[in-house]
């Protein structure tokens, strides 16, 4: 019997990273998930990440980096301006950028991965993020991977298989992996149900419509 490869997975609790978690398990990785509390508007995604890991018997660590909040400006932080609504292409959606978040998260995940002898650090970045979020561009991740691979004597690499997928492509993956999307949260707002109006909800709802299926979550407006 072959030995499983070991992965550290940056898990937000959203649709993309949760789908990637299931994909890693399907690819026979021993997964160690890591999530971050950075003073975001709500803990809905983190709650979903925890529940998903419990369901799948995946080791999960929650790292509190909220001490960085005074250095950041984004509408995704609960002390910031109101979250803009509707489609990501609208200019004001740039207010949702958390500067260099992926480098911060990835650096900590790599630190963890090197400490436990992981082979990869997995990131759920996809191409729908590229226009708005500079640190989600393929060029950025490739260069970051070059640095990661020379950062320790024991080589570890970044794994980002969703990088050329849009949200609809990712949902198609769900159909084959039986991802429990009940345990995901995409909305920027921490209401009882997803708002259906923020850029993140809009993109998610459009993805399900594109593949002629229905999102299992109940929305306030859709």
Overall shape: globular
What is the first-to-last residue Cα distance?
Answer: 48 Å
User: Main beta sheet, described?
Assistant: 5 strands, parallel
Order of helices and strands: EHEHEHEHEHH
Separate helix tally:
6
Strand content: 5-15%
Overall helicity:
25-40%
Low-confidence stretches: none
Radius of gyration: 17 Å
Mean model confidence by pLDDT? 86
Count of individual beta strands: 5
Strand pairing plus helix content: what structural class?
A: alpha/beta
| Strands in their spatial order, largest beta sheet | 3-2-1-4-5
Structure summarized in a few sentences:
The protein is an alpha/beta fold.
Question: Any overview of this molecule?
Answer:
The chain is α/β, with parallel strands linked by helices and 222 residues long. The chain is 34% helix and 12% strand. It contains six helices and five strands; from the N terminus they run βαβαβαβαβαα. It has a five-stranded parallel β-sheet, sandwiched between helices. Strand 2, helix 2 and strand 3 form a beta-alpha-beta unit. Helix 1 packs across helix 5. The longest helix has 16 residues. The chain is globular. The N and C termini lie far apart (48 Å). The relative contact order is 0.18. The mean pLDDT is 86.
